[in-house]
Amino acid sequence: MTKQPLSTYRVQLHVGFKIQQLHQQLEYLHALGIDWIYASPVLAATAGSTHGYDQIDPSRLNPELGTEAEWRALHEHRRALGMGWLQDIVPNHMAYSLENPWVREILTHGEASTAAKHFDIDWRHPDFRGRVMLPILGDELTEVIAAGQVALTPQADGIQVYDQVLPLSSRSLGKFPDLQSAKLADVLDAQHYALTFWKTTNSTINYRRFFTVNGLICLRAERPETFAATHELIIEWLGRGDIDGVRIDHIDGLLDPTGYLKRLREAVGPEPYIVVEKILEHGETLPQEWPIEGSSGYDFMAHVNQLLRHPAGHAAVTATARHFTEHIGGSELPVDLQVFGNKLRFLRASMAGELENLVHHAQGALAGLPLGMDQPLLRETVAEWLAGFPVYRAYVRFGSFSESDRSLLVHAIDRAVALGAVQTDGLQRLRSWLRSITRLDDRTATFLQRAMQLSGPLMAKGIEDTTFYQHVDYLASNEVGDNPDIAYALSVEGWHDRMVERAPTELNAGSTHDTKRGEDARARLHALSADPASWTAFAKTAYDRLPAGEPLPGDTFLLLLQSLLGAWPSRMADAGNGDSGFATRMASFAEKALREGKRHSSWEDPNTSLEQRCDRVVRGWLADATFVAALQRYDEGISAQASLNAIRGLVLRCTAPGSPDVYQGAEYGDYSLVDPDNRRPVDYPARQLSLVSLARTDPWRAFSAVDEAAGSFEFDRAKQGLLHALLNLRRDDPALWLLGSYVPVDVTGGDGRVVAFRRVFGDDQALVIVSIRSDASKRWPQGDDFVGAEISLPILGERVDALSARTVDFATVSAVSEMLAVSPAAVFVAKE
After folding, report:
1. pLDDT for 660-685, tens place per residue?
2. How far does the chain reach from its first CA to its final CA, in angstroms?
3. How far apart are CA 300 and CA 502, in angstroms?
4. Among residues 737, 519, 726, which one has the least CA distance to residue 33?
């Protein structure tokens, strides 16, 4: 039987937070109620890596994290505490770096090396003649040579490029007995690598990379030999109990995710817990044939996000955004059109080389068919087809062609046409071909799988890394797995439908290392839709207080103001630097956001003038007493709603089907911005002290004392106390929360602002009641907000709220206002 965590706690291990430092926190995390540690990648990575996804050697522990002895001691201790371990692994790519022994091998020996077969390199690419491109130059090769930045080393034992020495190929050593007298151009031409300007990868490339990161080269995980070489240590750790499960990073990047997961399950057996990083779009579910426990929880995070939106208020906030974007600058398109256009621009500007390689595969798959398309038409047809996908990818495999796969591939064509595709004739021919396929031969399967390998990164770059920084009406919705379209607000009935279908073995995320902002920053931003009139007034005041001579485009202004508002409480953590620490964080965020948005700036062509202006605007605002006073008044007005939203999300995460995941430090308020801001050090000593003082405190009492002080130390302690109570509730009754079914409970009245459900396992059951979308004028604890709302469950009899210790007799009480008299949520369980 597969193990399953009651809860997980994600930690980011790196040189600043090592194995030994995590070891020191195990007792605290166990006391908090955490069941499993969920660790970022720990295999050897590039020097100074802050995330571990740039691995260089899958056969050993990252020495920067600690020693083997420290690793074993850590696991002995956590096993003694009864804690499990979920390990993040990276089967899709490695660092394209000289630190990587496999990379050194292919640079030295080329295609003939054993390592060459592990990497996804097109050695037959016409532009590289059996060499792999090495895009590390800051200019064209001739210019770099002329500047003296590429040369043979004095000892003629390598090629000096900037501050690194590349190996010489064995064939060049044989060809030039006296390297010192050979022409540099001839020596370079004899290498197994082609030195290229880094921007060349936008138009031409002969290796698959992770998204558009030149320094991450992709693996051929579909090969049994590559799978074995990259998973041997992970499988060993699973076998001896050093780890209990794995989280698969970027499953959609693999050629054949289904085949990979089946091979992994066969290798590790039925017991290890396996989840995948998978962004599920609206209405999408995981393939049933995947032998896993579920996803890492982005979908759950999106469901909570959608439930917290006030639909009418959301529309009003969007109307305010229209004022700024249409009249000040940065006009918006409907989300679907915006995504479609961004995907096409991205393909043509940044992944044209990948698109051209895919067209080569398409020509092979379509060879002999009377499609009548020349290469330019085929390229544009394939581009518009990929841009039309509503989800990350299909999971086609060699052999039979399922109707569900065919339907998705054809639907992407129809959707592209509906969104304004130009190559309608080519798309019609492609549609006819897809409908004619009965079985996937090798060439056809390879083309479609390669297309899907490109579709996933294209979806991520088109939405998460572009549209989310452009479509800034309501930033709370711009989150991984979610959609900023107003149509995606979720009703209570819609929530129930998703939870009934949800596998109880999945993770329920709140904040992650990939989120655009922390869970409590989102909770604050959802308060905008509870009182849109106040938001409009504050936004206009903020615009009027822009420092003189520092105008911003409307979309940039909204992005900056909402981000500042969401992160505002975390300025307390920067108190040692005064406002400058907070302002510096905001400036770093603005730089990344503008470049990712690619509308006013980009990584390749930075608009440093606008980026510096954003810095001056934030610092000007923070130095402006009128602005700060207006911000504080608005902050006081939304703090109660922010607290309520934070509570709602946390209670749902811990009581709905699935295992709650806590991101490092997010037991306190999490107001972080996008990475690397969310990898700042965690103050564990403070958390340890507050847990001791709050372990036996009624969490509602702590919250009610700070309903107007969200983000203060009191809020942090209150959130930690609530999480502690919820996690220990799960620990006290694991069967109910891990195996119990989800049963929706009808609420009469209440205007769709109460979510109620039972978790049932045999004769054991709990009733969960959570308020949502409360009136902005209501304060704590808002019991009178539900006059007329009733729940009739006399079968429960007398129950106690595990979070407040209040007893309710359901045989005589049906009013929600009584059930939520002291709190915005309750979890009623049997009395002891």
Report:
1. 999 999 999 999 999 999 999 999 99
2. 30
3. 9
4. 726
Residue 624 sits at φ, ψ, to 5 deg, of: -95, 110
Dist. CA 570–CA 536, nearest whole Å: 23
Work out the angle between the directed axes of helices 375-387 and 403-418 (0-180°, nearest 10).
100
Residue 96 and residue 45 in contact, taking contact as beta carbons nearer than 8 Å: no
Taking phi over 0 as left and psi of -120 to 50 as alpha, with beta for the rest, 130 belongs to left
- What's the half-sphere exposure (Cβ side, CA atoms, 13 Å) at 427? 23
Q: Which sign, positive or negative, has the C-alpha torsion 560, 563, 565, 568? A: negative
Whole-angstrom distance, CA of residue 487 vs CA of residue 505: 29
Give kind and range of the element (H or E) at residue 9.
Answer: strand 8-11
Cβ(651)–Cβ(727) below 8 Å = no
Q: Where are the beta strands (DSSP E) in 533-687?
A: 659-663
**What is the rounded radius of gyration, in angstroms, for the C-alpha atoms of the chain?**
28
Look at the pTM and tell me if it is higher than 0.85. yes
Residue that the structure tokens 């690397």 belong to: 676
The maximal CA–CA distance of the chain, rounded, in angstroms, is 98
Give the span between the Cα atoms of 90 and 57, in whole angstroms: 11
**CA gap 446, 440 in Å, rounded:** 9
Q: Identify the residue whose tokens are 């409307």.
A: 554
For residue 702, what is the DSSP state? H
- Write the DSSP string, 92-147: SEEE-STTSHHHHHHHHHGGGSTGGGTB-B-TT-TTTTT-EEEEEESS-HHHHHHT
Q: What are phi and psi of 241, to 5 degrees?
A: 85, 10
The amino acid at residue 15 is V
pLDDT in tens, 466-489: 999 999 999 999 999 998 887 778
The whole-angstrom separation of Cα 97 and Cα 101 is: 9
From 320-334, 433-447, 529-543, 684-698, the region with the lowest mean pLDDT: 320-334
CB contact at 8 A, 557 and 473:
no
Residue 814's φ and ψ, nearest 5 degrees, are -130, -10
User: Which DSSP string do the residues of 513-554 spell out, in sequence order?
Assistant: TT-SB-HHHHHHHHGGGGSHHHHHHHHHHHHHTSPTT----H
Parallel, antiparallel or unpaired: strands 213-218 and 93-95: antiparallel
> In the prediction, which pLDDT does 788 show?
84
Residues 6+ apart with CB under 8 A from 695: 31, 721, 724
Cα separation, 381 vs 426, whole angstroms: 6
Contact (CB, 8 A) for 768 and 825 = yes
Centre a 10 Å sphere on the Cβ of residue 795 and count the other Cβ atoms it contains: 9
Residues 706-761: tens digit of each pLDDT = 444 444 567 888 899 999 999 999 999 999 999 999 999 999 988 888 999 999 99
C-alpha to C-alpha distance for 738 and 487, rounded to whole angstroms: 32
Question: Which tokens is 694 given?
Answer: 């709050």
On whether the CB atoms of residues 585 and 673 are closer than 8 A, the answer is yes
Nearest to 303 by CA among 9, 723, 741, 649: 649
Q: Which residues contact 443 (CB under 8 A, 6 or more apart)?
A: 361, 364, 365, 367
> What are the helix (H) ranges across 209-256?
224-240
Residue 10 and residue 22: Cα distance in Å, rounded? 11
Using CA atoms, how far apart are residues 621 and 633, in angstroms rounded to an integer?
Answer: 15
CA dist., res. 523 & res. 566, Å (int): 8
Q: Is the pLDDT of residue 701 over 70?
A: no
Measured distance CA(578)–CA(240) in Å, rounded:
49
Question: What pLDDT is recorded for position 702?
Answer: 62
